[in-house]
Amino acid sequence: MAVAKPGILKELSLFLGRLVLLAPVCLVLWWLIMPYYAWVLGEISVVVLRYLLRLPVESVTVEPSGFLNTETLLRFGWESRTREIAMCVLVTNIATFVALVLATPRGARLTLRRRLRTLALGTGILALGQEVYLILAFTFAGAVSQSPEFPTALAQVFITLPFPLWVVLAHWDRMELFLHPNACKRSN
């Protein structure tokens, strides 16, 4: 059985400590701006739904509510009807991703430039996924109401997506050891 080096344990402890401190701060800040972010996502969705998919969406509104906006609703309107989507569960994964990247120690070879690039790419991927989810949720709402398992499963993927994104984007160079078993032999 291999024993972890003290440096690795120290690095892991520092990372976990920073993550415990940063995650709540990132969540609170994110929830405070979430209604504005939901509005941007909604406006982009309306453009796609109306002009690309030719669906009769007439309006989008955001209703901030709940403690720290955690019950914020995005509402699409058309033909005197509305469809609501709860935003907190869908978009909070960005705060999780930001906390993971910010908590990553400098020893992980994550320079400021690379950290910013990782944040931009990761949040862009998450935002694109959220946008696709909103468009699909509106477009196929009838089918979704009959079989809610698929959107529930997709939501679970979105909730956990920050973790593999963080591993791949922030630690890709370190993954060589896992991807190429002979890498250890070459580096010695």
Q: Cα-atom Rg, whole angstroms?
A: 20 Å
> Termini, distance in Å?
21 Å
- State the shape: elongated
Order of helices and strands: HEEEHHHHHHHH
Low-confidence stretches: none
The percentage helix is 55-70%
Tally of strands: 3
What profile does the largest beta sheet have?
3 strands, antiparallel
Q: Helices and strands: which structural class?
A: mainly alpha
Calculate the mean pLDDT score and round it.
Answer: 87
How many helices?
9
What quaternary form is this? single chain
Question: What spatial order of strands do you see in the largest sheet?
Answer: 1-2-3
Report the portion of residues in β strands: 5-15%
Descriptive report:
This protein is mainly alpha-helical and 188 residues long. Helices cover 68% and strands 9% of the residues. The chain has a three-stranded antiparallel beta sheet. Helix 1 packs antiparallel against helix 3, helix 1 packs across helix 4 and helix 4 (112-139) runs antiparallel to helix 7 (162-171). It starts with 5 loop residues before the first helix and ends with a helix.
